[in-house]
Please model this.
Amino acid sequence: MTRRRWAGVALVALPSLFVGALLVWPLAVVVDRALRPGGSLDLTPVTTAASDPSLWGVVWFTTWQAAISTVLTLAVALPAAWLFARNRFRGRGVLWALLVVPFVLPTVVVAAAFSSGPGSFAVPRGTLWAVLVAHTFLNYAVVVRIVGVAWADLADRYADAAAVLGAGTWQVARRITAPLLAPSVLAASSVVYLFSFTSFGVVLVLGGARLRTIEVEIYERVRQLDLGTAAVLAVAQMLLVVTLLWVAGRWAQRWSVTLRPTAPAPRVTDRWGRRLGAGLVALSMMVILGIPLVTLVARSVWGPQGWTWSYWSALDDRRGVLQAAPLEALVNSLVVAVVATAIAMVVGGLAVAGIMSLERDPHGSRLARPAAFDALLMLPLGASAVTVGLGLLLAFGRPPLDLRSSIVLVPVAQALVALPFVVRVLLPAARSIDASMRESAAVLGATPISVVRHVDVPLLARPIAVAGGFAFAIALGEFGATLVVARPNLPTLPLTVARLLGQPGALNRGQAMAVATLLMVVTVGVVLAVDQLRGGVRD
Amino acid sequence: MNRILASVALAASLIVAGCGTTSEPSSESASDDPAGTTVRVVTHDSFDLTPEVLASFEQQTGITVELIAGGDAVAMVNQAILTAGNPVADVLFGIDDNQLAAAREAGLFAPYVAAARDTVRSDVAAPEGDLVTPIDLGDVCVNYDREWFAQRGIAPPDGLEDLADPVYSSQLVVQNPATSSPGLAFLLATVAAFGDDYTSYWERLVANDVAVSDGWEEAYYGEFSGGSGEGERPLVVSYATSPPAEVYYSETYAADVEAGTLPAEAPTGVVADTCFRQVEYAGVLAGSTNVAGAELFIDFLLSEAVQTDIPLTMFVNPVRADVALPDVFVRYAGTAGDVWSLPADEIDAGRRGWVEEWRRIVLG
Model:
């Protein structure tokens, strides 16, 4: 093996171990326990599941609803990506930060926002349409932010050169812009697809009891202690996801295009046709993001007796169903999210560096295929969470693995889920850096570290900010892990919302809306600050 | 996404708890004098005590309490069953009759008779073998929206039969028993009431356009029209304590108490003869390394301080007969008519089949 190959393998080792130990191994343990109950192989669960038409129906539903969700999200989000990437307008920075809000809102709150007020008219609960709309809403930011950043970085001169050579607008779009954007669109699409494929909370809350994804089915089976069927479904889900990731990874590599760094300025919106287009896109965004969010804010100040501040005035108070005051929960949330973001960025950064290093190696062996690592790192989005959780319990329930401080595990679990986002944002960006720049730097005597510091990091500043923002938002909005890991007397904001909505009463509901609004405001504030730090989309 | 985190984190927390076990003082030394030790308590996500009450245990015994969250009751007990003998904690709180038989079969608990066991009200049976101690009880009942029925001049339903009556068509929302505890309790109520004919009862409910949600929150806040619910349907499966909670958690409660203007009745009521009783138990987990501390904690759960505290923290009824209920419970709570229940063994033997049959009938 070449030195570069060794370096690459070393770099991907830690991220692989991270995902392997926390995800792949536990899944294997569950499968082992389900299919070898007495020490000998028993394939009855496989044959039983394979001959159950209702399970095939669940698999088929999961597959196609994710495809439709992805197409819908792209249709709605790509124009918005264009708006941010190619237009300059007032309020752009704030709107860019606002995009992450759907991401951090607990599913229950999203459902509440959709199913009352103006949203309920368009999105009746318990329907497929409600699920698709919620998937689009939640994933909107994934596409806008990933593609938006890539689009902003596209140099105009390719398009301009083509135009000078006589290409029409359509031809430029088809022959220049589309191929250059393809890798980032593919990256975003695969995240959206996986998200919708493994969708759990949305389907449970908004889909009514009749719609079931594979993950919901696994959850129900585990609740009945039917480990056999759960394990078979988990493996089927994993195989489907791995196949998909493998195909996407091949395409991504084929489609990646090397760009020279340029400083394209978004065009000032001057022509009226363009203005109209931008206006329409902005308007659609207001509707998509605005209606649920405004509904939420309004409900935090509007009760059965009319306008009220009572939901907000008690936020520093532990009361009734709460185990800690919402403001204490805010502090818990922020601390955990910062740590989780740091872990995700370090692990994700190493992974991207490793993959890049392997990809540049001309003598790639079959064993160390970068695409394989790439797919492995995406697994947190595609593996059956319910099964993995069970597996961890069975696999690491005894020494020697001694993880003492369980508080540390909250950010670790959050970082695991944030990892695919970090990699998906950084990898296409890193691939587009011209290798000759690094090589020139090296020839001129720069050490590998200073190449990273002076070439990679400055060129990747914006993607890094985007990835960090995503990781932070994911961690902050996280709800399930904290529910079961955090000490019950050290809750976070999403946990507080869930507690409040777990009991009847106008005060509980109103305060849940106030806490959700607080969560939203804090997230936007932090993401805005990160964007300002490194310029989310260049102005 | 949250599911992933939940599971990973849950398991991780259990690992931690499990690993902690090996290095703690051995059980003999702990049982001599539990002061200075830590007792780990795994609870479901509705567990709550006033911090001062919990602190009083630590002050009196010198034992530190470490609360471990186990998800909802079903998930918590399932995980305990899968790791039986190598427990994540010393005490488990929150198991109910639905899973008691399975827990017994898995050898989950070590027997213990709490000091104050005699104070438990007489209608709560002590489970076989003293494996667990009853701590609280709650009734899952159909709630109705008073205003909705008053405005239309229709009498609210009375009993399970009425729910299938076309007069009450398109009014009831229930939870999926495969994903929700109150949903399962209501299914069990129908099994207790109708026996094998529960299937034809559910067929009639389906014909009467019953709505189904996967969880309590969606059903109550999303579909129910009464109290703080924001939906359209005036009948929902909830708890006997939901009406007092509506009053207690209304915006004006504090002011009303001060001014003496509390409402005569809650905005919602309980439909008679629809309630299913759920008793929640606590037990010492077999394999605990701090048995003495665990036993003291179970005594504590049955102490007057805790029993007085739980109505307004967890909105359930204490099991002690000699504890006074808070005023808001006395005024607004009502479990009317017969309360259904089933023996733990019968639930264990039938549950899976009933849920599957329910799915076939209701979800198609």
